[in-house]
């Protein structure tokens, strides 16, 4: 199993530190070097690989600072070589990549950006979604159509219910308000919203979240069709 540590970076991003049983160390989306270097130092760890989900600065800006101290390969979306300049390993859905004796499956999930990927660790049951899926939300459609994003979300919906979702941002509390406007009578959503409020009041993260909970509460996953998804995304953009 892989042990995951959340490292808050910037205002509301999470970088994730992965530790496999064989000692392999990975990072996902180091948007800022300082807090990540501090955590590595504290835990006396060296990264063996840096994963990135998409090209946005708040997910990759820590890479040069990390590579200045630690030498390790950077693995990210194959189609983003011109926008993520430090990549050594180009990932697509056919990639056979291993981390700590565990297979890593890549989901190509365009919508938020053209080249966005999610990283799935089937054995440990972990999914790193970047800005494709948030708890109770999804990424804005900066470079994709609603149809593309809806198709991308279907790939996530198809994963096992117990999969733990690790998103790129702590947006859950604000997202809950929007979901409650759409589905005010959804009891699972009401319950999750209360739990999220309590966690945030204590300054604690709302992640990871099981995919089952998201399927019961996230109105974007529950849209049912690309058309309805497009309506909800447009409504959220205006709110
Ligand atoms: Zn982004
Ligand atoms: Fe982001």
Molecular structure report:
It is a single chain. The protein has 239 residues and is of the alpha/beta class. It has a single domain, classed as Ribonuclease Z/Hydroxyacylglutathione hydrolase-like (Metallo-beta-lactamase, Chain A), CATH 3.60.15.10. Helix content is 32%, strand content 24%. The chain has 8 helices and 14 strands. The chain has helices spanning 33-42, 57-60, 63-67, 146-157, 172-182, 187-201, 211-217, 226-238, and strands at residues 3-9, 13-19, 25-28, 49-51, 74-77, 89-91, 97-99, 102-108, 117-121, 126-130, 133-134, 137-138, 164-167, 209-210. It has a 6-stranded mixed beta sheet, covered by helices on one side. A 6-stranded mixed beta sheet has the order 7-8-9-10-13-14. Strand 9 and strand 10 (126-130) form a beta hairpin. Helix 4 (146-157) crosses helix 8 and helix 5 runs antiparallel to helix 6. The termini are far apart. The model has no long low-confidence stretch (mean pLDDT 97). Fe (iii) ion (FE) binds at residues 56, 58-59, 131, 168-169.
């Amino acid at each position: 199993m892989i042990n995951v540590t959340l490292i808050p970076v910037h205002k509301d991003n999470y970088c994730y530190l992965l530790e496999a049983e064989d000692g392999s160390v990975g990072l996902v989306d180091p948007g800022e070097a300082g807090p990540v270097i501090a955590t590595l130092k504290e835990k006396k760890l060296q990264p063996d690989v840096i994963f990135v989900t998409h090209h946005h600065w708040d997910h990759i800006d820590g890479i040069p600072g990390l590579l200045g101290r630690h030498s390790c390969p950077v693995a990210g979306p194959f189609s983003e070589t011109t926008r993520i300049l430090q990549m050594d390993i180009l990932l697509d859905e056919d990639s056979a990549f291993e981390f700590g004796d565990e297979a890593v499956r890549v989901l190509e999930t365009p919508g938020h950006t053209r080249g966005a990927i999610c990283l799935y660790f089937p054995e440990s049951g972990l999914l790193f979604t970047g800005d494709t899926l948030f708890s109770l939300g999804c990424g804005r459609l900066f470079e994709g159509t609603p149809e593309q994003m809806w198709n991308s979300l279907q790939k996530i919906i198809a994963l096992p219910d117990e999969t733990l979702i690790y998103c790129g941002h702590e947006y859950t509390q604000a997202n809950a308000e929007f979901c409650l406007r759409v589905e005010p009578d959804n009891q699972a959503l009401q319950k999750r919203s209360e739990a999220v409020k309590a966690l945030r009041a204590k300054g604690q993260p709302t992640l990871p979240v099981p995919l089952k909970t998201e399927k019961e509460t996230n109105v974007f996953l529950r849209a049912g069709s690309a058309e309805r998804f497009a309506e909800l995304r447009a409504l959220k953009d205006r709110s």
